[in-house]
Amino acid sequence: MDVPDGTEVWDADVSGLRYTWNKGELVPMVEPEELDALKRTTEQMVLSQDAPQSVQPQELQLPQTADISSTRTQPRFPVRAVGSIVLAAIGCVLLFLAVRNRKRVKAANSETPPE
Fold it and tell me: Pick from 17, 107, 7, 1: which is nearest to 70 by CA?
């Protein structure tokens, strides 16, 4: 696939996670602090898997600034509805102008030139 850089990409099965396509790679659309917290959490999970079973599970917290809801996409229905209404209005105006112009041309052609 030829995906232009800057294209927003998301997984329909995982809500709240968005990425940007940049130079052939997916770049997460998260704040740097959130990304650092996720990296630390992942490293701790990997380390706990490699450690002996006697290790007690730890509760891992994201920083208070992490807000997954801020990465959710907003519904696009209102934007599409307004766009459709604007396009319909433009179409009606163009149709009106075309009909009016056609009537003027017919009226001009029906007049008989003076002899």
Answer: 17
Q: Are residues 41 and 91 in the same domain?
A: no
pTM of this structure = 0.33
In the chain, the DSSP E strands lie at 8-10, 18-22, 25-28
Strand order in the sheet with 18-22: 8-10, 18-22, 25-28
Note whether 30 and 38 are within 8 A (CB): yes
- The domain in which residue 97 lies consists of 74-115
Residue 70 has pLDDT above 60, yes or no: no
Same domain, residue pair 98 and 56: no
Question: Can you read off the two tokens belonging to residue 35?
Answer: 């990304």
Looking at the structure, do residues 64 and 82 belong to the same domain, yes or no?
no
3-state helix, strand, coil in the chain (%, to 5): 50, 10, 40
Q: Mean pLDDT throughout 45-58?
A: 66
